[in-house]
Structures are given as structure tokens and as C-alpha cells.
Amino acid sequence: MSATIYDVAREAGVSMATVSRVLNGTAVVKDETKKKVLDAIQTLGYRPNAVARGLASKKTKTIGIIVPDVSAPFVAEMVRGMEDIATMYNYQIILSNSDAQADREIDLIGTMWEKQVDGVLFMGSQVTEELLQAFEQAQLPVVLCSTIDPEGRIPSVNIDNRQAAFDATRFLIEKGCKRILFLSGSSDHAVVGTPRQEGYQKALKQAGLPPQILECPSLRYEDGLKMLRESFHQIVVPDGVIAVSDELGVAAIHACLDAKLQVPDQVKVISFDNTRLAVMVRPELTTISQPIYDMGAVAMRFMTKLIHHENVEEYSFRLPYEITVRKST
Amino acid sequence: MSATIYDVAREAGVSMATVSRVLNGTAVVKDETKKKVLDAIQTLGYRPNAVARGLASKKTKTIGIIVPDVSAPFVAEMVRGMEDIATMYNYQIILSNSDAQADREIDLIGTMWEKQVDGVLFMGSQVTEELLQAFEQAQLPVVLCSTIDPEGRIPSVNIDNRQAAFDATRFLIEKGCKRILFLSGSSDHAVVGTPRQEGYQKALKQAGLPPQILECPSLRYEDGLKMLRESFHQIVVPDGVIAVSDELGVAAIHACLDAKLQVPDQVKVISFDNTRLAVMVRPELTTISQPIYDMGAVAMRFMTKLIHHENVEEYSFRLPYEITVRKST
DNA sequence: CTGAAAGCGCTTACAG
DNA sequence: CTGAAAGCGCTTACAG
């Protein structure tokens, strides 16, 4: 059995309350007393039991993170950003994967509540009424990350996806592209669907060019390549492609190469994200660079503010993005 | 305030102990009584407080995971495997990144102990005496994942790295390679260093071929490419390359292309891991395929056995690997 | 500046 | 099959 606060108190000849005070710095303690306590802690090798502390204080110093899938590089990088800031503020994280399944998401919110986390960082494809209700019921502070509540009822961290898609489209148009294909995520996805499609279409309309959208079942390379191979012969052959993820961007490049189309000479490709994959393929991908790590970090930083009731002016964060030009355009 | 077990007991007209029993199934409860309790739980929307439960039972249903960096795809996939099995057994995970820094690793073990996790899954580059001592002190069950204690004092899940490197080398030799370069991790790394170098050298010696090892500061693409570019003119130009990670494999391919060497015609490349990157580059990578997800899953499954004191025969798991042949060889 | 005591919300022998 | 009560290891008013 390891030492408890009671053992420390006895060893130091003080009360438990005093030990607690020097541990947490919640009140002034005479230097002399403090030293006795610190010595006792030292000799006993005492470490406070966070569970007991959590029960007594109703704060667990733990943040729940719900994401679709950590094994996706975009997500993993974001989670890393969250974790680093959590560490900085002495929080730990409980990580869960939802596979973007609505019922699993709801479930996980319940689990997070049972674990008494101090807050939840959430990434998912949609913010439904049921989800909102689950958060409401759990009475937990929530921050969305790379996830949007169209009604803006929950704080969130994103880039301006609509504008970014618009910019990407403009970029290709200015490069002379006339037949720009948009490789989209599911159109009801609040991030990689609707807003980006809108930005794309707005730019095309302004330029008097025809839109052509292909919706991928996922943002993964394999699915993108499969879909492109199946549909390449029945679509207008593009001279420009905008992909909503780097993996889809790579899929586009390879689909073109397989169809004997040179990238970037005959087809220019730009993708969203700028994960590390973008520089690991040839030609290197031109991307809409998202500050992925920072998005996670900002979300977690904001969470710590919510928890500590610091007054927060901003609510819906729009982080800057930029077009990183490489060899694919 | 949300309902407590006391509220449920009163609502159902039974004692807290009885509520606890139906909740945990720790004793037989009359059907009629059970129904009353279940109804009360339903109407109050009661969910047990896991923190209180943890304090009382001394089991938190939480597993700590310490990894160098979740944002590395290999790690992320492994973590996903761990999480899935944890979910299956009703455990949650606390995830922490050590950046492979020894002091940080020790620190994290302390934190995990404070959080009263039921066990720790650990991935790191080395198992030092200090680390072992920290685990000892924390009195936590530990399972190493893709990490080796040379003395075998801690259960672990790995592939046979020595044999795998031997096989990879044999594979290239049989393809006719005479000048095989080994792109290694730091040589004191217990997984990507020593054992793989040994397997490589053994195969070369058997074939009477000269070894040539390049040690990379990290397993990342950027670092590998940089190192190769700097040293390509001062080494024997290889006709075969074995890389200890897929990223280094891609770096090797690109370094060759930049030096006007055709892959696989003039240089054959094989890498370790078979992360998804392997199929996202051209030519697609031939790899020593590791069951990454499964390694995480097996480690977590073994942990649940340790926790429940199921008698465990095996201790040091050697999962199967295979050579997946693609276009780079 | 310090202590005594209640309480956080559960589980778990111990009785019956 | 069920209940009363102690206890898990802390924090936090409340007193002084």
C-alpha cells in the first residue's frame, strides 16, 4: 500500500487539511510548516490520489476527446495539438473514436460524463439535435474542432472552409483551368461537404464556368482512387481538380497518371489539409494548408478558459489558412 | 445536480447496496426488486459516477497509454487497435505523448499512477533501469507494444525484428542485389536499431556481401531524404535499399529518382511497416508488413487478462509479419 | 496560519 | 435476497 495524505500528515505532525493546502497552494502556510510537510512527502514518496481528489473537488483534470478515428493522420495531428496544450495546463485526455457514427457519439458523451471529465473536445461530421441534447444533458463544456454547428450554438475552431474552397477554385481558374472537378466529401458533411462546395460553385459562377462535383464515400485514398477509376470515362475530363483531402488529392494525381494525363501540365491538382503526405508524393501537392495542430491546440486552450471561467470574447474561431504552392499545379 | 445512487435507492424504496448490486451484477437480486431499481434509474436518468466508483473499488476502468507521438501514423494505427479492444472490454484510455524522452516517460508513469489507471501500455525506444524502476514503484501492470525489453522482464508485443530484417535482406539478395544499403534508426533503439541491423548483417555475411548502414536521426521522411541527399555522393551507390520505416522507404525512392536512378530497375527498395503510405506512392512500396493495428489490439487484450488475473501462458508475443511485394522491388 | 469534521458518491464486508 | 454502516483518500467550509 502506498502512502495517503493521512500518512503524510502524521509524519509531518500536522493535519490533513494543512497537507492539502501545501499540495494545492489554496491557502498560505507558514514556511516552517510547509517544509515539514514537503519533507514528509519526500520521505514517504507520497503522490496524491487523483481519483479521491476528483471526487472531493468535483474536478478531474481530465478532458474527453471524441474523434471519428485517430488513425487518420489529420485527426492524429489535431489530437497531438490538443494533448500538448492539455499537458501544459496539467490536464490528461481520455480519447475515444466514434467512427462518425451518431449513436456511438451519443454513447461516448454518456461515458465521458460518467468519467466526470471537465470538458469535451468534439470532432464529427455533423452536429445534430440529438448530439446537442446529449451535451446539454451531460452539462459539460464542449468545444468543436474542425467541426461546425451551423447554428453556432457551440464554440468551435475551424478555418473558413467556404472561402478556402473559393480561393482554391480561383487559384486554378487563374492558372487557366476551364474544367475544374471538385472531389468532395459527403455533401451533408458540415465541413468537407456543404461549405466547400458552395465556395467552389460561387467562384465558378463568377467565372462563368460549369461545375462538376464527385462525392466520395470517404476522404481516403483507396476510396477516392476507386471512384475516380470507375467514373473517369463518364465525366468531362478535367484540367483542374480540387480535392477535399490530401489523400483524395493523391488519388486524383494517380488517376490522372493512369489515364496518361500529365500533372501538372494537363491537369492541375490542389487539395485541402497539407498533412505530411503532401510532400511525400511526386509531384508534391499544392494544398490549402490548414493549421491542423494549431486547431487542436486552440480548441484545448479555449477549453481551459471555459473551465476556469475566464471571460471569453471570441466564440467561433476562424484560424488562418494559406495556399502552399508546390509541383501539382 | 444529477441523481446519485442514493436518489435511486429512495425512488425505488431499497438500499444503496441493492442498487449497487443490480448495477454491477455482483449478487443475485430478486426480479421484482431489480425491476423497481431499473425503473428508478430510468425515471431519474441516473448514470453512476465513475470517479466515486473508482475510489471505492480501487479500479478505474482506465488504461494509460504512453507513446512517443500519436501523430506518427504507425503509432496512431496502433493506438486505434488498443482503443478498440479497450472499448470492447469497457475500458477508457488516457493517452500521453513522451516524444521518446526518458524523463518525460518517467513523469508520465507517475501521472498514470496518480490517475489510478488499472494498467499501462507503453511504447518507447528503450527500456532502461530507471523506467523499470518507475513501473515497479507504481505497481502497475505494464505491457510493451512495439517495444522491447532485452531482458524480457516485461510482457511485450512485437514482430521478430531480427528475422524480419534477415528475410528482407534475403529477399533483395535473391532479386540479385549486391550492394544493399540499410537505412537504420538509431542503433541503440531496441526495435528499429539493434535487432534489425543484426538480421541484415547476418544475411549479408552468409551471402558474402559487404554491409553499408546509414543511421537516420528519426524515421521521418524529411530527415531521411536530407540525410540521403547529403551522403549519396560519399557512399557506395546501392542497388538495393532496406528502410526501417515506410517514410524512409519513400525517402529512398525519391533520393534515387533525384539521382536519376530508376526504382526498381536500378535500385530496389523494401521498407518496414506497411502503413497506408506504402500504397499511396509510386512506385508502390514493397514492405515487411507489420500487423500494426493488431499489435495494439493484442497488447490491450493481454492487459485485460493481466488485470483480471486470468492465467496467462504467453508473455512475449511475436506476431507474424510478411513480405508484401509491390512495385518498388 | 492551522485543525476537526463533514462530505464527495460509490463498494463491500458483515449481518441477518 | 437485502440493509446498515464503514471506508476509499481527498477537499472544503467552518472555527479559532
Could you characterize what this model shows?
The first copy, chain A, is of the alpha/beta class. Chain A folds into 3 domains: 44 residues, lambda repressor-like DNA-binding domains (434 Repressor (Amino-terminal Domain)), CATH 1.10.260.40; 128 residues, Rossmann fold (3-Layer(aba) Sandwich); 129 residues, Rossmann fold (3-Layer(aba) Sandwich), CATH 3.40.50.2300. Helix content of chain A is 44%, strand content 16%. Chain A has 12 helices and 12 strands. In chain A, strands 2-1-3-4-5-11 form a 6-stranded parallel β-sheet, sandwiched between helices. Chain A has a 6-stranded mixed β-sheet with strand order 7-6-8-9-10-12, sandwiched between helices. In chain A, α1 packs across α3, α5 packs parallel to α12 and α10 runs parallel beside α11. The longest helix of chain A is centred in the N-terminal third of the chain and has 16 residues. The radius of gyration of chain A is 25 Å and the shape is elongated. Chain A starts with a helix and ends in a 5-residue tail after the last strand. The relative contact order of chain A is 0.11. The mean pLDDT of chain A is 94. The interface between A and B is large, with 52 and 52 residues. Chain A binds a DNA duplex (16 and 16 nucleotides) through α2 and α4. Chains A, B: It holds the Pfam family Peripla_BP_3. Chains A, B: This is Catabolite control protein A.
